[in-house]
Amino acid sequence: MKGFLQRVFTRRRETPITYDEAKQMAASPDADVRGTLAQRHDTRPEILYFLANDTDSSVRRHIAANEATPVQADVLLTDDTDDSVRGSLAEKIAHLSAGLSPNESDKLRRMTYEALDKLARDQAVHVRQVISQTLKDIADAPQPIIQQLARDTESVVCGPVLQYSPVLSEDDLLEIIEGSSGRSALSFVSRRRNVGEKLADAIAASSDKDAISHLLGNKSAQIREETLDQLIDRAPDYPEWHQPLVERPKLPPSAAGKLARFVADNLISVLERRKDLKKEQLEAVRDVVQRRIASGEFEKREITEPAPKKKAPKDAPAEEAKGAEAKTGNADEEEEEEPAYDKAIAMHAKKKLTDKEVAKALAANDVKFARAALSVLAGIPPEAVSKVLNTHSAKGVVALTWKAGLPADLAVKIQVKLGHVPPSQTLNPRNGDQYPLSEDDMNWQLEFFTGMTITAQR
């Protein structure tokens, strides 16, 4: 209905032209004139079909995008030599494909379906990607087309439908991931809303650590206690699982005590702040913490914040240094960052780590604290934050700032100050206060740069 109204009002804005005038425009040597005609919704079908053979690709692209273009011309354009023409056609036809099936009796609907099917197999990745992005959340999208896209070897094609399409059943997804030769399929499936127990078991049983990270970070995923226990037993070897594990909505009875044995001390503070843990579970966590302190593993914490021997304050772990994490990566750099990270953790625990504090740090050129604040607010390890910032990618830094929950205008300063993005290449807010990228794009950026679990449940 929305598309229909748009076409109606578009027609009202067009100054009517006669058939002879349209023929003269179609014969014009000026491609801009022919292009203008190709975009009109009142151009006669035979003229639009004629322009589908135009020598200028920009004219053919307008024909491909025009909803008034006859299906016969659309079919012709599926073989166009210009990828951008087929891409425009793919977007239009995908929008018109709801409810289509391979068994259409109506000739025009059958031709539309066949054109879509052909484009879904197009040699150009961009063309297939356009269809996937358009159909990913349409409930009555053609099932065979979705199945074809879900099995595509290119992640930018299969990813959107694997992650979002309501057309795919749990059995479809199990079959797809079992027959998938690439590792990306599991990661996309693991990020779907309301992943069921059978799917979760299949992902957990795999050797794909990234997919498991996404599954653990997916708050809506239904993971059985037994499966979660098995993942916790494997987790010491996979640091990227630690944060999503301690933040799972529901933990098995013995999980908190197990996690306290190996997660970094800043994550133990997350465990202690959970409101669903029973008294005996919290005591188990604190017993493990005391043993780790006694062994010297949390040595930095003892120096900066001596804990009472009988019972540590409830918020003490939130002010700990990054002792466990300082054992990996560049030790000198991490030790240098620890005081700033301690300060950020402590301020966050007291709800004082605000965008104003980050802006103040940037103004004072306090880079260490600003980087630490980004890490704490975004829930991303400092070394992963460094990886994003060190790429000098405007998109990556914007995504990181968004994940930290900071305002869009502050993202510009962070791009320049921390990401060292040239001012001429920064991404500026839309409409003054909106992030310039979509949430999907920003999550993709974070996953690409960090390789860790990023969820969009904000």
What report would you give on this structure?
The chain has 458 residues and is mainly alpha-helical. Helix 24 packs across helix 25 and helix 26 packs across helix 27. The protein is flat, with a radius of gyration of 28 Å.
Summarize this structure as a short list of keywords or feature phrases.
458 residues; 60% helix; flat; 28 helices; mainly alpha
Structural classification: mainly alpha
Q: What is the number of helices?
A: 28
- What is the share of helical residues? 55-70%
The radius of gyration over CA amounts to 28 Å
Spans with pLDDT under 50 lasting ≥5 residues?
A: 1-12, 299-337, 452-458
Distance between the termini: 32 Å
Order of helices and strands: HHHHHHHHHHHHHHHHHHHHHHHHHHHH
Please report the total strand number as a whole number.
0
Largest sheet: none
Principal-axis shape: flat
* Proportion in β-strands: under 5%
Task: State mean pLDDT (0 to 100 scale).
Answer: 83
Secondary structure: elements and pairs:
Layout: H1 2-13, H2 19-26, H3 31-39, H4 45-51, H5 57-65, H6 71-77, H7 83-95, H8 107-119, H9 125-135, H10 143-150, H11 155-164, H12 170-179, H13 184-190, H14 197-204, H15 209-217, H16 225-234, H17 242-246, H18 255-260, H19 265-273, H20 279-294, H21 299-304, H22 331-349, H23 355-363, H24 367-378, H25 382-390, H26 394-403, H27 408-417, H28 439-450
